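Predict the 3D structure for this chain.
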Amino acid sequence: MKVLVISPRTSGLGGVAQHVGKLVKLLRRDGHEVDVVSVENTPYLPVKGLMNPSFALAALAKAAAGRLLGRRYDVAHAHNVPSAPAMRAARGGRVLTLHGVFSEQVGYLHGGLAGRLGAWAERKALEWADAVTAVSRSAAERYRSLGFDVLHVPNAVDPADLPEEGARFFERQVVYCGRLSREKGVDLLVDAVKRVGANLVVVGGGPLERELRELARGDPRIRFTGPLPRAEALKIVKGSDVFVLPSRHEGLSTALLEAMAMGVPVVATRVGGNPELVEHGETGLLVD
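Done. Predicted structure below.
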């Protein structure tokens, strides 16, 4: 089978990147021919607010050029709404996977007008697809309420990728691992840690890294590692006493799945797919 996979990212610590990167690896392992369109091989503008729109346009141009050259796929699989125009332009069956509620995330990050534009783009993407999947039940139900047939296919982790030994910077430590952006709520975690006197390790990078470092400035109990290779990041999660996911918006967190799979106690906000993974008081704690 010949497959085109379109995703803003296929590498890094982000959950979508981890999901798609693993999917591509397994498809190729099973003998399928896989082409990938992502920021790793497609031009885009690395500017806040312009990354997704610029990737969407460049990916569309790339897929359209492939169609003009006679390229045909059995499946064009787009991950999230910015990948949908390229999915539509490609020749082949169209599958759209949604890793959260796109319009809500865009509206939160960029305001009401952007949210309304996101809702329009979201509906168009759903209309273009022959099949739609969502990684969380909450997202699937949201899109079903708009009249679309959406299949719930949850994220997963491969135990073979998880380390046997952990690493730590403090005798006892709390850890966050993931993208440092507004919807992830890491500012709330930094502020909480400063109040209770715990040790915190923040693993990852993103647009809020400088702001978060400034928020924690002068506190020796808070350590930022910056972006790390995934294997190193997972060792730090494995070696921690608690993993915290303080998201304001969430799909179905790969980082939360990984922490739970490694036996690390978890605390997460009651948003998105988090309550689908964490049973409060049994498999972790949920907070509002």
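The mean pLDDT is 95.
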